[in-house]
Amino acid sequence: MPTIAILPVKSFSTAKQRLRDGLDPAQREDLALAMFSDVLSSLGLVPEVQIIVVTASAAARALALEQDARVVQDRETGHNAAAVLGIEEAINRGADRVLLVPGDCPALAPAEVRTLLSRPLPPRSVTIVPDRHGAGTNALLIRPPDALAPAFGPGSCRRHLDLARSAGLHAEIVEVPSLALDIDTAEDLDALGNLPRGPATDRFLSQLAQC
């Protein structure tokens, strides 16, 4: 069974609240939708993975189905709870391992995902991909899927490492440049700058610059 990539996506209308000082509600919604579209498209170019999208958003559901992704209805009780729903579905589908990916890393490069997945790992292992600050977690590769309960949030990189080791799992922190930048703040948007990014996010930023 190929690796299953799990993409939890909250409703776009409530996304990116930390950008509210610079973007109005419609702009925040458009940005969240654009980034999700780019992440989904990038994952769709990785033949080693199947995709599960966990969401309550009709727009996200429609995009996911266009990409032949499996959609799981989110109860919107938090990112970790959504990730667990995706893991449960992946287990039901016979996955050997899962890759948890956020929907707000618009620079995600399919080649780097393939490189991450090609690394030899023991049967019970967790690979932690940190954010650009080294504090948060921007992706988790878990084998088997239920070996570790996701614990995203502030300081989650060290937390995931400690939890994995406590569970007797082989644990590594692996940097993936195109997954290092997730967009939550104005500083993150500035850091995106001229970095390569997906076409939908690029169009949004181009339109924003003209406002």
Describe the structure.
The structure is a single chain. The longest helix is centred in the first third of the chain and has 20 residues, at 25-44. It contains seven helices and seven strands; from the N terminus they run βαβαβαβαββαβαα. With 211 residues, it is of the alpha/beta class. 38% of the residues lie in helices and 18% in strands. It has a single domain (3-209), classed as Alpha-Beta Complex (Spore Coat Polysaccharide Biosynthesis Protein SpsA, Chain A). The chain is globular. The mean pLDDT is 94. The N and C termini lie far apart (47 Å).
Number of domains: 1
At the fourth level of CATH, the homologous superfamily is: Spore Coat Polysaccharide Biosynthesis Protein SpsA, Chain A
Order of helices and strands: EHEHEHEHEEHEHH
Helix content: 25-40%
Integer average pLDDT: 94
Through-space gap between termini? 47 Å
Strand elements, count = 7
Class inferred from helices and paired strands: alpha/beta
CATH architecture: Alpha-Beta Complex
The percent range for strand residues is 15-25%
Report the sheet with the most strands, covering strand number, pairing sense and barrel closure.
Answer: 7 strands, mixed
The side-by-side strand order for the widest beta sheet comes to 3-2-1-4-6-5-7
List keywords for this structure.
211 residues, Spore Coat Polysaccharide Biosynthesis Protein SpsA, Chain A, alpha/beta
Task: Please summarize what this structure is.
This protein is an alpha/beta fold. The protein contains seven helices and seven strands, in the order E-H-E-H-E-H-E-H-E-E-H-E-H-H. Strand 2 (49-55), helix 2 (58-66) and strand 3 form a beta-alpha-beta unit.
